[in-house]
Amino acid sequence: MRHTPCHTALSIARGLSTAARLLGLTGLVVLPAVLPIVAHAAETFPNKPVSMLVAFPPGGPADVVARAMQPAMAKVLGQPVVIENLPGAGGALAMQRLLSRPADGYTLIMGSPNEAILTPLALASAKYKSEELALVAPVSNHPLVLMTRNDLPYTSLEQIVAAGKTPGAPSLTFGNPGYGTMYHIVAEYMAKATGAKVLQVPYKGATPMLADLTGHQIDMTILPNIGASTQLLETRKIKAVAVLDTQRMRNLPDVPAIGETQVARKSEFVYSIWIGVMARAGMPADRARVLLDASQQALRSPELVKALALSGVQPLPAQSLETSAKFYADETARFRKMAASVELVPQ
Predict the structure, then answer these.
(1) Which residues of the chain have pLDDT under 50?
(2) 52-109 pLDDT, tens per residue?
């Protein structure tokens, strides 16, 4: 007969109880003292390295946030946090890797609405649904910025819209990091709402797209101002035209917010993308709470606060597992509505 740790503990406890009776120590109770020790050892989490997937190449927003959080999060957990970039298929490769692993908290992803919600709507090959994922801890919020090649003659959103509406003029080319990404959908929605004509050019990630933007192969794009795009703006290899937020960004003080423009329906063009620690749905609640606490402690570390501030990143307020779940459900509904508004079809 095979003996499990609990069977062994029970045998030891019975043996000790018998010995106690023989010695006349009838008041000695040993069983509760032994079993909790075994149970506690079995429930220690984490007791090995935690894998943090990133669905896009190094230098993107999720990668920057993951690497900024890594040291503090590992310190709190008492185990290494190993970051693995797994780009491809609009983030579906990383998501499918996550969903192939047990829901035990040892494989996480620094995710966003792109790969969690939109990719399953855009790619027929993405065989998963957003409901198979859980948002453990929202981390940061990133306002989107309209960026152009540095020699584009237009210096405002109004001028770009006017150029896109000029009869007979060639379409402005609009790069996006992948079909069905939030950046693609926002650009399509803005073009449809303003009547401007643009030609979407999809790429496999932000890195090759930014290379073509700096090389003047495309006219413009929409991205968060973090990572590689921040460096390109600082060196003036590209330029920022408008921040799609209600206020200007700290690290782009000279770039007008969308509310300052004279574009029609501008109140509809306030967009930002959140990034958060995500896991496969169904993880035990006690482990989810450990990861939530580690994420929130990491976000309070002075080094991370400073790094995020310098990048113009807006840390999200701490949330419970319940409020995170509601936030994720609401965001799923919102992005599905956006996708339907531009008639996004799986490819």
Answers:
(1) 1-42
(2) 999 988 877 888 889 989 999 999 999 999 999 998 888 899 999 999 999 999 999 9
Give me the pLDDT at residue 60, please. 78
**Closest alpha carbon to 117 in 138, 131, 101:** 131
Confidence (pTM): 0.79
Domain at 143-272, CATH from 3.40.190.10, 3.20.20.80, 3.30.420.10, 3.30.70.1290: 3.40.190.10
Just give the CATH number of 50-141+274-341: 3.40.190.150
